[in-house]
Amino acid sequence: MPSTIALRSTLFSLLIVTLLSAGCRAAAKTPIPAAASDAPLAQSPGKQTAVFAGGCFWGTQSVFERVKGVLATTAGYAGGSAGTATYRQVTTETTGHAESVRVVYDPSKITYGQLLRVFFSVAHDPTQLNRQGPDVGSSYRSAIFYTSEEQRRISVAYIAQLDAARVFPKPIVTQVVPLKGFYDAESYHQHYTDNNPDNPYILVCDRPKIEALKQQFPELFREYKGK
Questions:
Q1: Number of folded domains that form the chain
Q2: CB atoms within 10 A of CB 36
Q3: Cα dihedral across residues 184, 148, 119, 164: positive or negative
Q4: Which of 34, 130, 135, 205 is positioned for an S-S bond with 140, CB 3.0–4.6 A?
Q5: 222 in any annotated domain
């Protein structure tokens, strides 16, 4: 017979999983359409930066670090008026920052439009305003922080394309705003999904995103092997 403490621990874990399952969005079974307006692949290797906010940065990072052509990812904070950002500050919902992920990619391997397609298909639900599943607040908002006029143009056109096609049951609420600063998150947040694979939140909210990426975009998927 299991001890009372062990039984309570098991029941508590089951309760957490049940609550998270109710809040986390199930990934779509099929990928959304590709961006009709996109930049062509570059002729030679290079580095460009994209920054996305789509709820808890654990899951967003776990998706993009598994995309071919992505060179590096960093969990952090962007979009606020405060001159600095830490997890303790951002979670007060007073700094204006959103949990975000900086994605450094090779434009000769993957286009910005392809990154957007992954972002909208499996990384998050772009119709949820100031929340993402069980996480509530403006720090969990959906946002694209563009680093060039080209990124702004492609993002705005893609959102209009998806809304016009009624790909989602509700309008997209994703902000498209210039990147004014990015602050790296604390070290324990980096690659959190891979460092804490048995965390109930990860199992329920983030692992399905990785599986959806693998199933929907096999040509882009790669196994993550660490830094």
A1: 1
A2: 12
A3: positive
A4: 135
A5: no
Active site residues: 56
Which residue intervals of 32-127 are DSSP H helices?
57-64, 87-90, 112-118
Q: What Rg, from alpha-carbon coordinates, does the chain have? A: 18
Query: What six digits make up the tokens of 176?
Result: 């498209």
Are 220 and 110 a contacting pair, CB within 8 Å?
yes
**pLDDT tens digits for 162-206?**
999 999 999 999 999 999 999 999 999 999 999 999 999 999 999
Contact 140, 131 (CB under 8 A): yes
Q: What is the pLDDT of residues 7-46, one digit of tens each?
A: 333 333 444 445 454 457 555 556 799 999 999 999 999 9
Altogether, the residues listed in the chain come to a count of: 227
193 occurs within a structural domain:
yes
pTM: 0.89
